[in-house]
Design brief:
seven-stranded parallel sheet; Rossmann fold; 2 domains; alpha/beta; globular; 429 residues; 40% helix
């Protein structure tokens, strides 16, 4: 039997770190062996991070994972905390975090994880010397990981696939301090693109933007869901209340305030909702005070804030909810498709959208589950909420994925098949 080829994956964000950014890499690692490739991962040693989910490592326990040191702030904060420094990162104020982000944008190009790249490069070369690889994958963000990939390729001549899970400086929500910073970032991107063998990204919108900037064609492998996760999880006990859940991170840019105003209006218009509504907030709030927001819109008594839960629990809550809230403000580019889109779809639940036009909305509409709320008119949005509530109250709200909807292209296994095809093409297999 022919042995699998070996591929090295450089990924700063990798389990036991949690949240959506790690899902793509860990699912590629899980499924690549089924398509003739044995992955090995280089990532960072423990860092100070918003959320941890060790359960994501359960299905990849045979994978070699090398964890390196780093001088980036998240690693240094972890070491400070571990050694009992009074500079406990848990005590850092929101103002301190904002100041740090501003300084980082000024002095670290393309990002502060560039202070990890020397460690990643050395480990990659050591591992290649010990057990040679057939190809390299880098996955960003952080975008500096591609600089590590470029260095490894230059010294090993290995075929290199670069995966861009987000755009770069050209995303509307990624404002750089000066035009000089934009210029330097653009030059870095163009240099990287000259050296890669193939580039992939998550949406056609981003692929078109990369091509416009670099004159290089990109392939699209979207984010998705792992159907194994959904088959193995039973929903938590159904509620006798109409349940709307938001799963994911809330930030100053990904802010639910317009939805909260719409929810307040809906409850005022429809008195019976007061005893029959509950809101689940599942995930981290960074840069905003969700408790205060809920209080200001008189929604605290209807809300349950669960902070971050592991991936299996999150799916369980999705499958139990009567509606899932999807937010994508205009600050985000039209090519942005957050990972939750596909898991929301797989849950077979109605999706209340308050989102800009773009690739994400096109995908959600294809399922027939989109309940579109006005992104800038809370009163109009409230009517959509009321209509959905009345359907639930009358027993006419169904659950489950429509059998006519073909979700195979959004499964992590199928996406990994496409990734393996790309790897085979660059090694000439």
């Amino acid at each position: 039997m022919k042995a699998n080829r070996r591929v090295l994956i450089l990924a700063y964000y990798f389990p036991p770190l949690g949240m959506g950014g790690v899902q793509r890499a860990v699912k590629f690692v899980k499924y690549l062996p089924q398509f003739g490739w044995t992955p090995e991962v280089i990532t960072v040693k423990p860092v100070h991070y918003h959320a941890m989910d060790p359960s994501l490592l359960d299905k990849i326990d045979k994978t070699i994972i090398s964890r390196t040191g780093s001088l980036d702030p998240l690693r240094l904060l972890y070491k400070l905390k571990k050694h009992g420094s009074q500079a406990n990162p848990a005590n850092f104020s929101s103002a301190s975090s904002t100041l740090y982000r501003q300084l980082s944008r000024w002095f670290c190009i393309p990002d502060d994880k560039i202070l990890w790249t020397p460690f990643a490069i050395k480990k990659a070369l050591d591992r290649h010397k010990a057990e040679p690889f057939d190809a390299i994958i880098t996955t960003s963000p952080p975008h500096s990981v591609h600089l590590a990939g470029m260095a490894v390729k230059s010294q090993t001549k290995l075929p290199w696939l670069a995966d861009f899970r987000d755009g770069w400086w050209f995303e509307p929500h990624e404002q750089l301090p000066t035009t000089l910073h934009s210029y330097l970032n653009k030059r870095l991107l163009q240099s990287i693109i000259k050296h890669i063998d193939v580039g992939i990204t998550i949406s056609q919108g981003l692929a078109d933007t990369f091509q416009r900037i670099t004159s290089r064609e990109f392939s699209v492998i979207p984010n998705g869901f792992d159907d194994d996760d959904f088959k193995s999880i039973n929903p938590v006990k159904d509620s006798d209340k109409f349940t709307i859940s938001y799963c994911g991170t809330l930030t100053s840019q990904m802010n639910p305030e317009t939805f909260l105003k719409a929810m307040e209006i809906a409850i005022d218009k429809h008195e019976t909702m007061r005893s029959k509504i509950q809101l689940h907030w599942i995930g981290k709030s960074i840069g905003i005070n969700l408790q205060e927001l809920l209080e200001s819109y008189n929604l605290k008594q209807y809300s349950q804030i669960m902070d971050y839960v592991d991936h299996h629990q999150a799916i369980s809550y999705m499958k139990t909810s009567h509606a899932l809230l999807f937010l994508l403000p205009p600050a985000y580019g039209p090519g942005v498709i957050t990972g939750k889109v596909f898991e929301y779809i797989a849950a077979g639940t109605e999706i209340l959208t308050m989102a800009r036009e773009g690739d994400a909305m096109e995908i959600i509409r294809q399922t027939g589950r989109a309940r579109e709320m006005s992104i800038d008119n809370p009163s109009v949005a409230a009517d959509v909420i009321i209509e959905l509530y009345e359907q639930w109250h009358s027993g006419k709200l169904d659950r489950g994925v429509d059998e006519s909807t073909d979700l195979r292209k959004y499964t992590r296994k199928e996406q990994t098949r496409e990734l393996a095809d790309q790897l085979n093409s660059i090694i000439g297999a």
